[in-house]
Amino acid sequence: KSVYDYKGSLAAVDSAKLDYLSVSSSVRCSLRTAFVGLLQAQRSLDLSREIETIRRRNLDLVRVKYEAGSEHRGAFLTAKADHSQALSDIQSAERSLALARSSLCSVMGKTSSPELVAQGSLSSVDRYSTAPSFPALAKEHPSVLKAGVARESARCALSSARLANAPGIYGSGSYGKTGDSFSSMRNEWSVGVSASLSLFEGGGSYYAVKKAAAQLRQAESDEASARSAAVVSIEKAWNALRDSVADAAVKEEYLKAETEREKIAEARYSIGRMTFDDWTVIESGYVKAKQSFLSSQAAVLTSEAAWIQSIGGALEHETQN
Length: 321
Hints:
By secondary structure, this protein is mainly alpha-helical. The chain is 74% helix and 7% strand. The protein has helices at 3-67, 73-108, 134-139, 142-165, 204-270, 276-310, 317-320, and strands at 168-178, 186-196. The longest helix is centred in the last third of the chain and has 67 residues, at 204-270. The chain is rod-shaped, with a radius of gyration of 37 Å. The relative contact order is 0.15.
């Protein structure tokens, strides 16, 4: 085989390695997303229990006022319904937890177990403040590297086709002795040169070169397209990550505000300086703020997983960074 055939074989090996990186990146994202889902489900169950405690405390407070005649029946029934909703939310959170556990086990290829617990935190990441160079990251993306391997393979195929179509030049030489007897023998030299050219293949070699050249142009175009698509995909994932980080920060501010309002409102309602209708609106806002902040924290980690996949981060990514 020619050196171009050898290079083509190496390109096939490189392509297989890049296929592995692509699959590994996808698997990592699926694992991370499922893991974050389990973390969120665990925290959601804890939060549902916290909310049930709040709703039960509120119900007890309203019941005392209702029985004392200082609160109307509608307020008592509303507080009771809020508590019932909190109990129902706990049951829903338990079912969601079981599903999240099964989802993670499915991705890992294991049988689901109620003893599986995700260890970790949903705290927001803060290491993505400076935008990276998207073209530089795209240059190292597996899809772009694979397109580059395909382009190089096409280049080798074109060189091989041109070599096959080129004229062949051959040289020959011989040396010997000739004569009727040993004493009369004389030296004899023979030198020859020959050339070969494929003239009777119906233009097959010529068109093979044209075809290989067209395939090289296509491979170069595919590489440029892959690089452009990678840049867009990476930038899109980065924007989504930054948006989720910013949203989590805002939701945390809202939660701090709602926490303060809830403390003040409960104290004012307990001494009769706030109506039930005003108080329950603030209490509901506080509960929603806690739930919203939890969702935003999980969204950050999920967006981070998508970002790492967008830059081709494989299963080994965490140990490399």
